[in-house]
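Task card 7
Instruction: Convert sequence to structure tokens.
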Amino acid sequence: MLKKGFMSFARSGLSSLFLLVGALSLPVQAAAPVKRARPAAKAGALAPGGYRWLEEGPLDGPIHLVISIDRQMAHVYSGDRLVGMASVSTGMAGHSTPTGDYPILQKNQWHRSNLYSNAPMPFMQRLTWDGIALHAGHNPGYPASHGCIRLPYAFAQKLFGMTSLGGLVTVTRDRLHPSLTIEQMAAAAGLPMTLAGTFYGDTLKAHRLVKFAQDKGLGAQAVERLYRAYFAETQSLFDEATLVALAVEIGLEAAETEAFLKTDRYADTVQEEQEFITMRGVQGVPFFVINDRYAVSGAQPVAGFTQVLNRAWDDLPPEIRSGPTCDDGVCR
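Output:
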């Protein structure tokens, strides 16, 4: 059950910020399928507290961490390239670190524990709201934490500067390589996706078109149609003829849409929203901002979104949380 005010935010967020910080960011680059990581150069075993960077940058792919509890090891990927590794210390018996896929929910360079005697947690990157995080700490080579993932200090410091809110961290029992391609994950969810051969260019007109459609009560339909055209049909979103044709499909008038696209209407609004997400360090796409406070990168498991939505809900003022509710699409 969701509160009506919260649902209103969700609808407005998904009709504006979702497109802005999704695959249509300004300017968009050619998308490419995420592949299994190429084998790394022989790195050798790492001593407790050890780490190694295989590339110094610049790194052009999204940063993704894979942490193996059994191996007490973390691998850092930039796109499909293994760029760094480190020994870790995960949760001890009775305080085990849970496996799963987690978005980075919060970052704090000089955080202190809220649960364990104000203990220092330098370069903290929160994975859950109930106490699991990455941070620099004692690294003996075996599980010794209360559930967090301790990293070597210098490694944690550099990693802190590389990651963004919403970045993906995968905790496994044994695996240290990324698992599925984006296309495979989409197929498993029943979504067609073809990333090979996608176009790139300036999507300002596409963003403006979404604003125009919102004025007509068709914002959500516009977002859905543009995403499907780009990700499933390999259509270009960078020419007016395609945009007009897609607009007509969702119910907009061709002549009115053509005339609109020849103006600069909503250009300033789109630029302001672009600055909003840039200031928040958004790098991966798509990216969701909830109540201007919480952020989640796309392609995350349902549990990741649920966790953040529940946290955002708990932070709402009592007068909103006690107001009308929505259940199965019916608001009361």
